[in-house]
Structures are given as C-alpha cells and as structure tokens.
C-alpha cells in the first residue's frame, strides 16, 4: 500500500464521504517526513545536525547553522510533486539564534546542493559559532500525504472548508519530522507558499523544520522556499527561508 492508498483508507475510516474523498485526494500533497525513528527499519535518508560535508569553495563559519542534510539518492523523488535532484546531497542552513523580525522570506539561511562525486570535507564551526550546532543523529524517511487546513492559502478553499471537520483527529496523529521535504508549509502566522503556484516568480516549499532558537526560549517553524523553475535547473542560489516563531 503506497502513501496515497494509506491516506485514502485512513480518510474512509474517519467517515469522509466518497464524493468528497476524490476532491480531498487531489489536495493531499505528498511529503517525506525525516525523523530519528529509533528502532525503525525505515531507510536512512539524511543527517540532522552535526558538521556538514562541504566542497572547498563553499564558505561557512558555522552560521547560519547547519540544520540537516539529505541524500537525494535515498529519497523517493518520483513520489513527490516537486522535482528534487535524483542524486547528490542537499544541505539546509538557517538562523537558529533568534527570531527574524523581517516579514516574509529572508536570506537568513540557504540550501547547498552538492552533486554526486563532488569532493567534500567535514567542516567544524568557528569557536564563536559552535554553540549553534545541533547534536547529530541519522534521519529516516517516511512518505505520507498531508491536507491543507483553513489557514493555508489554497485555490480550492471550498474543498478545504468541507474536509475540515474530518481532519481534526488526523492532525493529532500527524507530526512534522525534524525535516520534511515537499508538501505544505506549516502555518503559524501566514502561509509562505500558497498552492498551486501561479507564475514563474512564485515559491514552492522545498523543506520545513521545527527547532528551538538557541538564544531565546521561542520555537521556530522554518520553511525553505524555491521557485519551481530554479529547482528544475538545480539552482539553489535564490532559496529563501521563512521563519515563524511561537512559544
């Protein structure tokens, strides 16, 4: 049973009417949850925290912090609706010091794509930035489907409104991983990636992570955003990060 079949079966158990189920499934976007999953036999897809493996020409002192890396060859890219690279590694960096007070996507983070076969070395942060390093552990992947809610900026708001009563218990059972690839952004204050994209300058969500800031007790929902055409071109230079802080 694939992720879509699992979602369909779970929706039927929650009593979603058949005439609404088809509409809902068109909005249920695939995403890959990456989490520690200790004791699981799910495949290792990446690493959370620790020190990044970077090519010699990529400068990095330790900030923005290294959040996680993903082995694209271990990702079921054909199951997602965004065009991730089929090999190489994606490395995600973000400001984990304190909340950004700049509204909307910022440059307080980046994504580095390291093509397969590229020579890299492990980088340690500077003494000044060492406190922003998260403890490392492997990330295992689980593919699922996730529905938007009333807070998402979705073109088909009527289906979202109708499906909303059936999602309440589903949300309790669904958690973001330490990193998620694809799917919808988490909405705390605003939706950073309305769906579907409507023009070449619109952003789609590449990845999402939740973490606690180092210099403040606030937590953060960070979303790495990219234009679909630049993702297809393997151009990660213009990735933006959206930060939404919460208690």
Description:
The protein has 247 residues and is α+β, with helices and mostly antiparallel strands. The protein has a single domain (3-246), classed as Roll (Hypothetical protein YwqG fold). The protein contains four helices and twelve strands, in the order ααββββββββαβββαβ. The strands form two sheets. Strands 6-5-4-2-8-1-9-10-11-12 form a ten-stranded antiparallel sheet. Strand 10 and strand 11 form a beta hairpin. Helix 2 packs across helix 3 (157-173). The longest helix is centred in the C-terminal third of the chain and has 17 residues, at 157-173. It is globular, with a radius of gyration of 18 Å. It starts with a helix and ends with a strand. The model has no long low-confidence stretch (mean pLDDT 90).
Compressed to H and E, one letter per element, the order equals HHEEEEEEEEHEEEHE
CATH architecture: Roll
Give the quaternary arrangement of the chains.
Answer: single chain
Task: Compute the separation of the termini in Å.
Answer: 37 Å
Number of domains: 1
Q: What's the alpha carbon Rg, rounded to whole Å?
A: 18 Å
In CATH's first tier, which class applies? Mainly Beta
Number of strands: 12
Rough shape?
Answer: globular
The percentage helix is: 10-25%
